[in-house]
Specification:
Largest sheet: 3 strands, antiparallel
Strand content: 15-25%
Shape: elongated
Oligomer: single chain
Order of helices and strands: EHHHEEEEHEEHH
CATH topology of the domain at 2-109: Ribosomal Protein L22, Chain A
Distance between the termini: 82 Å
CATH class of the domain at 2-109: Alpha Beta
Number of strands: 7
Mean pLDDT: 79
Number of helices: 6
Structural class: alpha+beta
Strand order of the largest sheet: 1-5-2
Radius of gyration: 40 Å
CATH architecture of the domain at 2-109: Alpha-Beta Complex
């Protein structure tokens, strides 16, 4: 199962965040936490908070264990750039680009846990009993039990036949067929 968390508009350059992200990518969560706590980079602290947030999502929402999680994906995207100006000598101004980053982390289980079914045993029993056409009907006082009659399928209604004219009742011979084909030019058709 995949669990994710994200940071938007992190005010650190994406290039600097990627240096830290490359260190912990594809690690287990426990190893990544140890690396990030001892790493001497500014981006290490926000990534550690992001990782802990993703672990909390996994534990709370999906009942997964921290020891069984691995970093499947750690993506650092560029955010908006704030443009500022720095005054310089002789009345000039140099641009300053204050970059930001969006970071998305996706965690995955190392060993897949079995899929939990939300259906209860009672619900499955009710489904099985409804399948029978002759299911017994139980009443609330449990004194009377009677059998249901089988459900009869609706019968198809018969469409009345349209009466044919005398010319249609005759078996079609070649001459009648050719009359239809040639549309009144039957004089030209030879008799057989």
């Amino acid at each position: 199962m995949n669990v994710s968390a994200k940071i938007s508009f992190l005010r650190i350059s994406p290039k600097k965040v990627r240096l830290v992200a490359d260190v912990v990518r594809k690690m287990t969560v426990v190893q990544a936490e140890q690396q990030l706590t001892h790493l001497n980079k500014k981006a290490a602290r926000p990534l550690l908070q992001l990782l802990r947030s993703a672990v909390a999502n996994a534990e709370h929402n999906h009942k997964l264990k921290k020891d069984n999680l691995i970093i499947k994906e750690l993506r650092v995207d560029e955010g908006p750039v704030a443009k500022r100006w720095m005054p310089k000598a002789f009345g000039r101004a140099n641009p300053i680009r204050k970059k930001s980053a969006h970071v998305i982390v996706t965690l995955e289980e190392i060993i897949q846990s079995p899929v939990k079914h939300k259906k209860s045993d009672d619900h499955e029993f009710k489904q099985e009993s409804n399948k029978d056409d002759f299911a017994e009907e139980k009443f609330t006082d449990k004194t009377e039990i009677r059998e249901k009659k089988p459900v009869s399928k609706p019968q198809a209604t018969k469409v009345p036949e349209i009466k044919k004219t005398k010319s249609e009742q005759k078996e079609p011979n070649k001459k009648n067929i050719l009359k239809r084909v040639f549309k009144g030019r039957a004089k030209d058709v030879p008799d057989q």
